[in-house]
Each structure stands twice: as structure tokens, then as C-alpha cells.
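Could you join me in thinking about how sequence relates to backbone shape in a protein? We need material for that, and I hope you will provide a protein of your own picking. Once you have written the record down, we can walk along the chain together:

…
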Amino acid sequence: MSPNPFLSLSAWRPMLTQFLSGLAPAETEPPAYPFAPTDVARLHRLTAADDAAIDDQTWRDLLIDRYADSLSGEVSIFGRQELHRRLRAGASAEECAARRERIERLLREPAQLDGLQRTLRSLRRADTEVAGLLFDPQWQAPPRPRWLAWVRLLPLGLATSLAAVLWTPWAWIPFGIVMYFLMTLQMRYTDQVGTWRRSTWALRMLLRTVSLLDGGGQALAEDFSGRGARAGKIGRSLSRGLVAEAIPDAAAYGDWFMLANVRHYFKTSHIVSAERAFLRECYRLCTELEADVALARHLRGVGAWCWAGRGDGRTLAMEEGVHPLLEGGNPLSLSLADKGAFISGQNGVGKSTFLRMLGLNLVAARAFGFCYARRAVLPALPVVASMQNEDSLLDGQSLYIAELARARELLAASERRPVICLVDEIFRGTNHEESVAAAAAVVDELAARSIVVVSSHNLVLGPLLAHRLEPWRIVRTDGDGLRLEPGVLGQTNGVALLAQRGFGVDIQRKAERVAAWLVEIREIRGQSTFSEKTALFSEAYRK
């Protein structure tokens, strides 16, 4: 005989779920919790497999932290950690292809994109990171102390001694002893319990999201199938119970007089330890999905972008590349094959901005598969930059010493594997002759193994390094436009800028005389020393 459909739980489940959801209060917008950069970087530091990651100075030089922030609007700590990990470590061609398929589908189906964004909202209620808890190989659940088996007797002893006060005042002595032990244990574990409560809350939000994605019929959530029931069971085991969470004051009494929070801490820490592999799997699924949703939402609001092809280690081509953080920036194109590039241009024309634009596009293409250009074929190589070297008063280190230290790091990186080196104003911390000599030697060695793009006001480096670097110059077009074209800058504008920046005509004319003098002094022959050459011009300059 067939079962009665009215008695089937599966028949009533949709209506019951709809009824209960109607009774539940509307879910509020999660707060925007602040997270330290070390929290965001925790996943990468625990899972980095090799030395191909973006290093800290390159991260700062290319302003990747600001770019990561632009991707992380309405993204939980879980998604932010995954975006940071991809930017640091990059991704294989296979990983980028799989993510591209999901991102393209999200872009084609905006309703699904918005639906997934709403479902993932629970993750944003986590106020602490748990990557360390799940991926740190040294983490272990705290061992259960021996007294934990007898701790339930303390409330009984407390109640018994309190009742005995009605017969004898001496009962206050055992009452005080019991209270002493309760308060001592409570204060001893206050910090651990507080930290653990935030961690278990974050894990519960993770497990809740897995359950919603498994049973919610969401598109692109196929990987979550079959995991919702187990996730819900573990989430309930990490909860302190309906009464304790609904009535915090009652839970506080239970904590102080029954050590409920301490017992819950030891119980749930061993649950997490036993289910750690499953929790890591849930973490991976949720973080990857949330990161892809964030990227799709980002691209939906970006004007210029493309999927980047992956070239070999010596070929780079980018057509009309722009910086995603600059509104109205000038698109520039660059094509390199078997050589790097020497970039020249007048002061203020945007050489540093171009290097940052190129570097960020290289990092984005390696991490996500797309970049901000009309078309691009970019090598999936680690990027190392040297752009903001500074002297250090505390370390007693001059600018040139700092530049030399960074140059050694670039050479070491290129010895381990091919990289892309971006260097802005190389060796500006010493005099012209030694700057040119050191730059020519170091860049020649770097460019023999890797792609090097270097900018400098020392224009003589162009012909010196022509066998390694193609010369390119950034020039202004009609209006405020810029163009990148082959060749070395023909005329500098450092002296001309004096008058434009308010220094006055007299200062500019003196500077022009010194510039002419420097050109002429190099052409003098027959004087034995530089000081003898300068003596010929010092009196004329004073006049």
C-alpha cells in the first residue's frame, strides 16, 4: 500500500520551512568588522607552498593593499583571505580557467550573482579569522584536565553548603571554598574561553552557509551538495544551546556557578579537532565561492578589462592598459619580446604610474586571469618591484645602501626562477657617474635571466642597455593624453619646471647656466682633474 502523502514529512517540509521563515525576523545587515592586515594574510602564510609569492616590498610598492580593498566591499574575512592568497601566490592556468567559467556565468546571470551574495552574507558575521585554527599544523585541542570530570560536583557542593547555612554558620566555610574554586577556574580560563567563543561563532557561520548553499537550490553551488546535513549537525554541536543564546543573563549565571562556558570550551575544541578536515573543506568551498562572487561584482562595475592570455617567460603584450584605481587614466600599450624595456619621459609625465599600472595588471592576470586592458598576453611570473626605497635614520642606512640591498634581493629572486622586475629611478641615491655604472651592471645581469622594465632619468642607460632593454618613452599627445612610443627621451624638463612651479626667472636662468656648464665641462680636454675644469667656470657663474 502506498504511503499517505499527507503523513509524509517531505511533503510538509517546504510549507513548514516557509511558515517558520515568515515568523523569523528579517536578517539585518552584518556589521563591517575591522581586520588587521596580519589577519587577512594568515591563510597565505599558512598555505604558501613555494617562493613564487609576491614579497612585502613589492606589495607595498605596487599599492596592492589598496587594490585588494577595492575588491573586498561586502566581503567577509573568509573571502578577503582567499583574495589575498590569490594575489600573493597566483594561480595555475587550470585554476584560472575553472574560475573564469564560474565568473563568466555569474556575469551572465546577475540574479544568481545577487542571490549568492545574499546567501554568503552570514560569513560577514564572523568577527575573527579561523584560518590559523584550521590550517596551522601546530594547533591542537587543549588536553582535558583531570578535574573536568568532577567539576559538576562543585555546583552541588555549593547548593549543599548554602542550604546547610540554615542549620549552622560553619557552613559558610565550605561555601566559600567552593566559590573560591569556581571563581579561580573561571578567571583562569576567561581569555581562552572568550577567544574560543569568537572562533566557534565564526565556524558556525561557515557551517550555516554550507547548509544554506546545499539546500537552497543556488546555482553554481553544486560542490556543496551532500554536505549540508553534516555541516548543520556540527554547527549545532558547537552551539551552547537555545536557552543560553537566547537569554545571555541566564548563561552568565551558568558560567559562574556551573562553569558551563569552560566545559563547553573543552568539549567543542575536541569536536573541532575531530572534524578539522571537514571544516577545512567547508572553508575552502566557501572562500573560493565568495572570492569569485566578489570578483564578478567588481568586474560588473569596471569599464575596461579583458581575460588575459598566458604568454611565455619572454613575451609581454598589453593594449590600452589602465590602472583600476585611477579614474580617467591614460591607456598605454606596450609589447615586448625577448627583451625588457627602458622607460624614459619628462618629469611628472607618469613613469612611476605606468610601472604600477603594469605591475598591478601582471599581478591580477596571474592571480585571477583577467587584467585591465583591451587585450593582453602576460606571462604568469612572480613580480618583484623596487620603487620606494628609503633611507633609515634608526638603522643608519642611506638611500643608496637601501637601494643596493633591494637590488641584491632582485638578483636573488631571479636566480631562483624567472621573474618580472619593475624598477623605478634605479640607484638615485648616489652621483650620476656611479649611478649609471651600477645600474648598467645590475640591470644587465637581471635582464639576462628575467624580464626587466626600468625607468630612469639617466638617459645614457638607454643606449648602454640596448642589447637587453628596448627603449620606450612616454610622451604627451595633443591635450592631456599620453602615448608610449619607441625611443629615448630627447629633451628633459627638470630646469624648465622651476619657473612653472613658482621659483622665478632668476633661479631658472642660473640653473640653465649650470646645466650648460655641465655639458661643456665634459667636453673639455687637457685638464688633469675635475677641480681644474670647474675652476674655469666658477668665476663666470658667480658673476
User: Anything to note?
Assistant: The chain is about 55% helix and 10% strand. The longest helix spans residues 190-215. The radius of gyration is 33 Å.
